[in-house]
Amino acid sequence: MVVLFNFQFSRWTFYKHLTPRKSITLCQYKSTSNFSHFVTVTFRQKIQINLYVDTLLQWNKRMNLTAVKEVNEVMERHVEDSLAILPPLSDSHRSHCSTSIDKLKLVDIGTRAGLPGVILAIARPDWDINLLESMNKLCVFVVGVIGSSNIQMLRGRAQSLGENLCFREKFDIPVARAVAETRILAEYCLMLVRVGGLFIAAKGHDPEDEVMKAESALKKMGASLLQVCSVPQL
């Protein structure tokens, strides 16, 4: 479920910085046709995502980055879930925002292992993606994955970032996936949104009650609910 509120990644980085294991190839997935969003990206983007997933699983053995252990489950629960943000994001931006969608500045709040930020950066290399994470071990993993690219790694917490004038109201779109309740996210994340921008909260099934409880916090921050988008295949 994707909830929307109204208020340069290098194409070659993964070729340069990551070496895939011989045992992991695109054809090892049970069926890429089951991944409706993954099949829409280019072949090069599929390779980049494949290498990211491979590296995530390798590092996960040592750092416990995610509870998901199998490649197909990573594809379904992390990659597809991240890519599912793009259609409602693009539609809402085109219909409600005056700026071009080609050069968006996005911040991924509580990115943990780079989700959804790294996947969005692969799918949209023209966007400026900032990954915010407070846990040092997760920052170490993400920096190791992205190398020197125009994905920016920010170490810290959303509430602290919003108090910094260098970041307040500087982003077109903050995105938060499985981080906190919407009312809490509103207080932390809406400080980062430029006037006229969007805030996206990726939630589980049936988030309507949670969103209703956040209405006062949204109004206090000068925002309003734009839409709640179901992603039925996830």
Automatic annotation (TrEMBL):
This chain's source organism reads Cicer arietinum (Chickpea)
- The gene for this chain is LOC101510850
NCBIfam families given in the database record: rsmG_gidB (TIGR00138)
Tell me what this protein is called: Uncharacterized protein LOC101510850 isoform X1
- What GO CC terms are in its UniProt record? cytosol
Alphabetic keyword roster: Cytoplasm, Methyltransferase, rRNA processing, S-adenosyl-L-methionine, Transferase
Mind listing the GO molecular function terms for this protein?
rRNA (guanine-N7-)-methyltransferase activity
Q: Does the keyword NADP apply?
A: no
Q: Which Pfam families match?
A: GidB
